[in-house]
Amino acid sequence: MTRVYVPRDAAALALGADAVVVALETEAAVRGLDLEIVRNGSRGMIWLEPLVEVETAAGRVAYGPVGAADVPGLLDAGLLDGGDHALGHGPTEEIPFLARQTRLTFARCGVTDPLSLADYEAHGGLQGLRAAIAMAPADVVQAVTDSGLRGRGGAGFPTGIKWRTVLETSADRKYIVCNADEGDSGTFADRMIMEGDPFVLIEGMAISGLAVEATKGFIYVRSEYPHAIEALESAIATANAHGILGPDVLGSGRAFDLEVRVGAGAYVCGEETSLLNSLEGKRGIVRSKPPLPAHEGLFGKPTVVNNVISLASVPVILAAGPAAYQEYGVGRSRGTIPIQLAGNVRHGGLFEAAFGMTLGELVDDVCGGTASGRPVKAVQVGGPLGAYFPRALFDTPFDYEAFAAKDGLIGHAGVTVFDDTADMLSQARFAFEFCAVESCGKCTPCRIGSTRGVETIEKIRRGEDVPAQIELIEDLCETMKYGSLCALGGFTPYPVMSVLNHFRDEVVSAPQETPAR
Amino acid sequence: MTDEQTESETHRRATEIATGLAHLEGPLLPILHAVQHEFGCVPEDAIRAIAKVLNLGRAEVHGTMTFYPDYRAEPGGAHTLKLCRAEACQSMGGDALADEARRILGIDFHETTADGALTLEPVYCLGLCACAPAAMLDHEVHGRVTAETIGRIAEGVGA
Description:
Chain A is built from 23 helices and 16 strands. In chain A, the strands form four sheets. Chain A has a five-stranded mixed β-sheet, covered by helices on one side. In chain A, strands 13-12-16-14-15 form a five-stranded mixed β-sheet. Chain A has a four-stranded parallel β-sheet with strand order 8-7-6-9, with helices on both faces. Chain A has helices at about 10-15, 15-30, 70-75, 95-100, 115-120, 125-135, 135-145, 160-170, 190-195, 200-210, 225-240, 270-280, 310-320, 320-325, 360-365, 400-405, 425-440, 445, 450-460, 465-485, 485-490, 495-500, 505-510; strands at about 1-5, 35-40, 50-55, 60-65, 90, 175-180, 215-220, 255-260, 305, 330, 335, 335-345, 350-355, 375-380, 390, 415-420. In chain B, β4 (about 135) and β5 form a beta hairpin. The radius of gyration of chain B is 19 Å and the shape is elongated. The relative contact order of chain B is 0.12. Chains A and B meet through α1, β8, β12, β16 and α17 of A and α3, α5 and α6 of B.
């Protein structure tokens, strides 16, 4: 029997993976071929999806992008033996995009059957949890601190420090909350790991539970991710059935239960305090801090709130040791970061690498430029609240501090590429517009300032006293930055100001050009 | 007793759903999801029922329900097409595609086709940013969406 892999990842499905499976099954029946189709996660090379892999004596061989109509021809060319074909890429692991990565968090994603616990264990799964069970809670927290892991959701707060605060706060009940409300455009790492290796998130949360003495965890997933929700529900049921979750985690005598909760379309619920309100069944309004969620979080109890990638990086830290993890990276940005290359890119997808690669290497070398073939004009890093970087800043290394020094942020490490047809004034307008749509309404600068921002940019578009409007926007951005409780109002100035600073000529001359919308 | 007798079928069924989920920690969002799954929206009668089961004010349930874009007060079309309007999709011509979609379907965002087959909604990111522009028909995802894709989808649902 030959094993053939066709991803179940939403991006592969969006590009026709299910039709490829049907074609393979149909042709196999007609030709009397003995094949087993495994629905794996995505390897992250989205331009090659659906990426079909065949297990051969010499390892896995890749073909892509495969359409249903290509299947008969591929089988004629000897697909099941790794035969040559125009869509062939040779051994999967040797494809340059994959070969130059350092896959720690995403080590199994795309390799295994995401819903098979046996496959998970065969590829190093549960080693971290077993190691954590043998350690005292404070030692687990220390290991995470020593690894240098910082919040991968965007804030970059040291994960170990957060955990220690929760461990040291005594309470009758504590919670682990996983923030899987990945709403930033240009990001899909959370989705990919939840669909492609859900057990690693479950393991990371169980370790976190043991470390801070919490007995209950919630994964708050956005409703836009139905496939991730399905994968998590299935993996949690399996984990419960095998004693990885429940009253006695792997025979440790300690309990940890996990529940998936589905969001309802509010971007602001990706902010940790509004997420907590949403979990409690309230409007997703931002809370002021203090009290920190680590002291008074969900239902007023000490709560760890971590992003998916932060928690999914914990098992490898415990399994391989914090020293091995923190050897990667630069400065205060330790370990690896799953970078998402998106938008107008030739080779887009997920690229996990040690911190420190420059933006230029990522965009020009790894992505191979734009999908349209036109020159790159701007790159937005960090989602809708991230700055637009021009080519002049392409020497910026991927590192929390280096991006902050250039008035940007790496956020959730989404990199969205725009070609020279992009209208930067429209992008600045969109930043305000998005903030106006998604503001929870608590802080005046965010609730009202965003709408005033849209209006002011429209005045620039109409050429009404442009220098005065620019001055107004600068002042407004200052007010939003310092007068908002959370990053939505506080960071909307980043994309806006980056357009004013780096694309000023275009802004000033905008009135003479045709409006984009 | 008279209250019970005048209760609508919606109220009765919503009470049943809310009672079944009331044991959850923070049960309101799961209940609202389940009610919307049942009725295609969260009707006023259901809000009353949920408030009663959870011992909350009706305004509180209404306030929560209206905060979240996913919950609807009125039923939408038989199918919902969510078209991504966020930056990664913009970089691949998402704005022009949105105009095309409005033209092909003959409706604006948040509207439903006259035959009730399809509701068009904007969405800010589906996590399909490396195969933009992206769309989702109910739970079926589509990447590198073109005007032809929209046409095929409309035809497929009879819109």
